[in-house]
Amino acid sequence: MITKPFVGVLLLLCASAAAAAESRCVTVEQGWVRLPPNPAMPMTAGYGTIVNRCAAPVTVVGAGSRAFGDVSLHETTVVDGVSRMREVERLPIAAGARTELKPGGLHLMLMEGEGALKEGQVVPLQLQLEGGGTASATLTVRKAAP
After folding, report:
1. What is the pLDDT of residues 50-73, one digit of tens each?
2. Which of 58, 26, 74 is closest to 131 using CA atoms?
3. Which of 12, 45, 58, 118 has a 20 to 30 A CA-CA distance from 146?
4. What is the pLDDT of residue 2?
5. Do 101 and 49 meet the contact criterion of CB atoms below 8 Å apart?
6. What are the backbone dihedrals phi and psi of residue 96, each rounded to the nearest 5 degrees, phi first?
7. How far apart are the C-alpha atoms of 103 and 125, rounded to whole Å?
8. CA angle 131, 125, 122 (to 5 degrees)
9. How confident is the model at residue 20, as a pLDDT?
10. Stretch (H or E) spanning 146
11. Whole-model pTM?
12. In a 3-state reduction of DSSP, which class is residue 41?
């Protein structure tokens, strides 16, 4: 019967539309990448504020950039005077909430850089959201926070 394939296609279109809408309501504000002391260093960190303007919570499950071969979310904590960094596999963000990525806390580890960074350079970023959506952003290379 033709109804079953039609329902399947309709469900797929609805899921795609939901993921696209979700992508547009998740943004990164004041995104920046720390300029390393040696601009040719293949590793640095990214910061900014992830804003969820969606009506529902979202979960960041990954990140990527054309400028870096490996991008991951990390959190730095200090326990008994010892600084530790661990990878964060899932970052839930409530509806209407903001999550700050900052030095000494949550941040993006940008590794395997494709070339030397220059102050003012724009680095593209894609956040992968649970359910298949993505949110695009740009981060500006700076010596210090804006």
Report:
1. 999 999 999 999 999 999 999 999
2. 58
3. 58
4. 56
5. yes
6. 75, 5
7. 18
8. 165
9. 44
10. none
11. 0.82
12. coil
Q: Is the dihedral of CA 32, 35, 41, 45 positive or negative?
A: negative
Q: Which of 100, 110, 91 is nearest to 43 (CA)?
A: 110
Whether 2 contacts 118, CB under 8 Å: no
**DSSP string of 44-97?**
EEEEEEEEE-SSS-EEEEEEEBTTEEEEEEEEEEEETTEEEEEE-S-EEE-TT-
- The class level of CATH for 3-142 reads mainly beta
How do the domains of the chain map onto residue ranges?
A: 3-142
Q: pLDDT tens digit string along 127-140?
A: 999 999 999 999 99
Q: Indicate the SS3 state at residue 131.
A: coil
Question: Which residue, 78, 67, 27, is CA-closest to 51?
Answer: 27
Distance CA 99, CA 59 (A): 11
Cα 116 from Cα 124, distance rounded (Å): 15
